[in-house]
Amino acid sequence: MSDRPPASLSLDLDNKWAYLRAAGREDWESSDSYFPLAISNIVDVLGPLGLPLTVFLVGRDLQRDEDVESIAKFASLPNWEAANHSLNHLPWMHTMSDEEIETEIRVTHDAIFASTKQTPVGFRGPGFSCPDEVLRVLGRLGYQYDASIFPTSMAPIARAVFLARTKLKGEQREKAKKLYGGFAAMRSPNWPHRRALPCPDASASDDSGLGSIWEVPVTVLPVLRTPIHFSYLTFVAGYSVTVAKTYFRAALTACRLFGTTPSLLLHPPDFLGSEDDADMSYFPGMKMKRDAKLEFMTWALSMYSQQFTVSTMLDQVHQLSPYSTTCHA
Ligand SMILES: [Zn+2]
Predict the structure, then answer these.
(1) Which residues neighbour ligand 1 (ion) by CB within 5 Å?
(2) Amino acid 327: pLDDT
(3) What pairs with residue 80 in β-bridges?
(4) What domain count does the chain have?
(5) CATH number of the domain encompassing residue 259
(6) Does residue 252 fall inside a structural domain?
(7) Ligand 1 centroid vs 255 CA: distance in angstroms?
(8) What are the NodB homology domain coordinates in residue numbering (predicted)?
């Protein structure tokens, strides 16, 4: 094995309207897009580091020509993979009917092919929501992996903070109470693993690879299960860059020590400064100025690429053996 173990990097390309809607803003539908600035900053940071990227796209954004033009800029990276992040980015797929779930995934699947000429084979549910019907649809569409699990010990805290800040009311607020997967997610593995597809005919599900799909969780710190995705890091860096760097170094060391092949996650606000968008000021990590944040992100991503062989999520999955077993935590 190379002394740089395999790893992957992905971006949830959530647009501003999704954040404003989650915050309970009634004018979310008329929101402008921050894609032009965010995507050019992302490409400017990742490109010189030679980093590839899996981009989880929301179908609704593929209906706007300007956003499709911005998304096309990812083609300047060494490699990029277009993946599916649902149609409307509603973070409560567990409350939808089977037909609604099918529409959320299939319409986006077709729109991604139409706009990028890539056939997506990876899916991440908004709000880390992944009911059985999602897996059934992914199986029918021939997807190779799901990435909707966030096995953090901080899910209850994150949900409480979300509910305290959002202005969502009534039915939507009730649905939001199940965000982030709850305590069940904390017991999920923190490493890629095969997951049986829940078929109506149980005998069709097994671990042979026929009735199963890769589950690639968003990696958390081994043992403690605290987040190590970049929005959490920039949130910490907003208070102390030194603490954020120390924590990230320790997290990468722990992943190597425990043989956890990491899959780290980016969001567009990780590449925007407080001066760029006043509407986003409530988002964690939006305290930092743009230059300071981009400097921190460049440092962190450079460290990631020095310690791991970073690929797209699809390439990471291809490198994994269905029966690989290493020491994990
Ligand atoms: Zn998202």
Answers:
(1) 12, 14, 126
(2) 40
(3) 53
(4) 1
(5) 3.20.20.370
(6) yes
(7) 24
(8) 25-300
